[in-house]
Amino acid sequence: MTYDNIDQFLPVLTRHKNNPILIVGHKDPDLDAIGSATALGLQLQQRGYNCKIWVTERIPTDYKFLPGLDLIERKYPKNFNEKLIVALDSSHLNRIRDYEQLDIHTEILNIDHHSDNSYFGNENIVWEMSSVGEMLATLFQHIGWDLTSDIATCLYTAISFDTGQFSYSNTTDHTFEIASLLLKHNIQHHKIIERLTENKTPAYFQQIQNALNNMIYNEDYRYIYTTLPHCKESPGNDIINFIRMRKNTDVCIVFRDLPNQLVKISLRSKTDFDVAKFAAKFKGGGHKKAAGIQLEGDINQIQKDVITALEHELIR
Ligand SMILES: [Mn+2]
Fold first, then answer.
1. Residue 196 has pLDDT above 90, yes or no
2. Which residue, of 30, 144, 163, 241, is most buried by count of CB atoms within 10 Å of its CB?
3. 220 alpha carbon to ligand 1 midpoint, in Å?
4. How far is the CA of 110 from the centre of ligand 1 (A)?
5. Ligand 1 center to residue 127 CA distance, Å?
6. Ligand 1 centroid, distance to 315 Cα (angstroms)
7. Mean pLDDT of all residues in the chain?
8. Ligand 1 centroid vs 92 CA: distance in angstroms?
9. pLDDT tier at 316 (50, 70, 90 boundaries)?
10. Where are the domains of the chain?
């Protein structure tokens, strides 16, 4: 494994030692985006940097246990005048919500693990790794920046989330090495996992029920999909992880029917079938084994189009 541009990390930060630094992540932030942002924010803060995290979305109550959330501003901090933007877990600039508000002339450090990353930064650290959490832990280790228990908690949460508690194929020996290092920092492994997995609301169970009722399995093509109607809150990875347990399944899809004819689609592959490539046909993207699409229109028509395209691809 080569760590491209690993030696750019410290010089970029050092150059901005006395400048305001703004940390951003992708829209609908998950726990890799948020956990990485708070880890980097806490790390920079304890080293005397002036930094803020900008996330416009309300932070889900499930995430409230994370340290460092007080560094987050929901409104774009107009008078902060950042000189460096650190973009985390975002394959393209337009993955950042309201990115139009950012000054395009500001220097951008792009740290990401998506295979379709467009290298939109002035500096780009893009690796094939489980999570940005694992990347940041590696970068901190490389430059000799010690971790506090809070920073380790954020990183461990980010990694646990993006690896499905160390169960997906993106989990490597290196992931476990980093996890082992983080565990040495007095973090409560079982509490973090409990927060990630045993903290569900009644609405969540209703979603599971809907997901099961709407589940459709195709034996010939070995795909499975389901639809979540009126699903405002993100179900995270749980529903797609649930339906992927079906025997003899290669591709899993969850369609979320949102207000204003917005349809969000999550895709997973359990074979070499590249769902990022497939998602790109509908202007979506992601990783080979986990990707997403966002479309506007009638859910039934969109479903038909996506499933027809999928069957077409699977047959080749
Ligand atoms: Mn991620």
1. no
2. 163
3. 32
4. 13
5. 11
6. 30
7. 94
8. 13
9. low
10. 6-197, 203-315
Topology adopted by domain 203-315: Diaminopimelate Epimerase; Chain A, domain 1 (3.10.310)
* pLDDT of amino acid 33: 97
**CA 89 / ligand 1 centre spacing (Å):** 5
CA of 159 to the centre of ligand 1 (A): 8
Taking 90 as the threshold, does the pLDDT of residue 63 lie above it? no
CA 67 to centroid of ligand 1, rounded, Å: 18
Which homologous superfamily is 6-197 in?
A: inorganic pyrophosphatase (n-terminal core) (3.90.1640.10)
CA of 219 to the centre of ligand 1 (A): 31
